[in-house]
From TrEMBL:
Record-stated family: Belongs to the short-chain dehydrogenases/reductases (SDR) family.
Molecular function GO labels: oxidoreductase activity
Encoding gene, per UniProt annotation: TIC32B
Keywords: Oxidoreductase
Pfam family, any one: adh_short
Name of the protein described by the UniProt record: TIC32B protein
Keyword Oxidoreductase: yes
Length: 371
């Protein structure tokens, strides 16, 4: 990249930081969800703490630790559903699971892309597991039940559901097929309904196999959310939309869902975690050039970035490590990054059981017609 291109990216990033700063002071839709202090603690301090304590594990090294290096049949018979496994972190998780013999169900919207990425991986290395592709459009709730019906018709167990797919901060308000704000629809609602419909299968697998797991992709951005107003922000309407504000609140909602399910289902031996993967220059946020320049392409946070392989490590840890059930039971651990439990400092840690129930009821109201 030329010097002028690099400078243009820095400039674009600076403009985005400036716009976020201005909105944190002036814009009611941003201020209602995140604040300067919470963003500083959640993202800036959090990213630096994470960088300093990075164990440098990769998705593959975590799987090797659990399965034994080179034991490529270790995950034979295990079934994992991953949403958004056609790109970025989900793809790296799928690769490692397939390498060690797992049956990975790609919950995806583009079968050609899924077939292509799997063929590319197979051309590079032997993958002993099986890949199945089932269509789901996470911005259309009416596609969730057909996905689940197709999966259940295969009569397989379900050892782990990885709610990974997500979008970040489209600059302009977009609505899903059902008229819900798109980040809320994709990051939260489709995963809410998917999890609800798959819970009986997860319970059945936990009874027959000893345990099952659910992993949510949260974020330090979720830690930057200071408040979720169920009336105005779940979901936000066009007049109350904030690209970054709604990203923080939807990631926080993912974390609250994880915490709620953790507390409810640990007794059923369904272990539920939320994960911050790190800051990874994947495809996330690609619709927002300013944010991409600020967080990913520019230099300001570059020193804190993880590789895709490192970023996918904690999800694998939460999906496979024998430590997770122990830590769930003994420490109540549900929030992880750098392959270990962390102290949650944002709204997700403060949300009372009453708030959690109200949030669940709101999501159920929006989802029940499609259940
Ligand atoms: N990267 C980071 O720095 C970072 C940091 C914190 C948290 N996270 C979280 O990590 C998760 C994965 O992020 P990533 O970095 O891997 O992102 P990514 O590279 O952009 O991948 C996103 C995946 O989600 C899928 N997806 C998006 N919209 C969809 C829809 N409407 N229907 C079906 N699938 C859809 C994409 O499918 P296509 O391939 O068809 O586009 C893709 O497979 C997200 O939940 C994100 O919030 C990421």
């Amino acid at each position: 990249m030329g010097c002028w291109d690099a400078l243009a990216i820095e400039w674009e990033g600076l403009k985005y930081y400036k716009s976020v700063f201005a909105r944190l002071i002036m814009d009611p839709a941003t201020k209602a969800k995140t604040s300067f202090g919470q963003m500083f603690r959640g993202i800036v301090v959090g990213a630096h703490y994470e960088w300093l304590t990075n164990p440098k594990k990769t998705s593959e090294s975590v799987v090797e630790e659990v399965c034994g290096k080179g034991n490529y049949d270790a995950l034979k018979g295990k079934v994992v559903i991953i949403t958004g496994a056609t790109n970025g972190l989900g793809l790296e998780n799928a690769r490692c699971l397939l390498k060690y013999g797992c049956h990975v169900v790609f919950a995806m919207r583009n079968k050609e892309k899924a077939a292509k990425v799997v063929a590319e991986m197979q051309a590079k290395e032997t993958l002993t597991g099986k890949a199945t592709f089932i269509n789901i459009q996470l911005d259309d709730l009416s596609t969730v039940k057909p996905f689940v019906q197709e999966f259940l018709a295969m009569n397989l167990p379900l050892h782990c559901l990885i709610n990974n797919a997500g979008i970040m901060a489209p600059p302009v308000y977009r609505a899903s097929k059902q008229g819900l704000e798109s980040q809320f629809a994709i990051n939260n609602m489709s995963h809410y309904l998917l999890t609800h419909l798959l819970l009986p299968k997860l319970k059945e697998t936990a009874q027959t196999s000893g345990e099952a797991r659910i992993v949510y992709l949260g974020s330090l951005a979720g830690e930057a959310c200071w408040n979720i107003d169920l009336d105005t922000s779940v979901p936000s309407g066009p007049e109350f939309y904030s690209d970054i504000g709604d990203y923080t609140s939807t990631k926080c909602i993912d974390m609250i869902h994880a915490r709620h399910l953790h507390d409810k289902h640990t007794k059923d031996k369904i272990f539920v975690c939320a994960v911050h993967p790190g800051i990874i220059n994947s495809g996330l946020g690609k619709d927002n050039p300013g944010l991409t320049a600020a967080f990913y392409a520019g230099s300001s946070l570059k020193h804190t970035h993880k590789s895709q392989a490192e970023g996918a490590a904690t999800t694998m840890y939460c999906a496979l490590s024998p430590e997770v059930p122990k830590k769930s039971v003994t420490e109540g651990a549900w929030w992880y990054y750098n392959c270990q439990p962390q102290r949650c400092i944002g709204f997700a840690s403060k949300a009372t059981p009453e708030f959690q129930e109200k949030l669940e009821a709101k999501c159920w109201d929006l989802a029940k017609a499609y259940a």
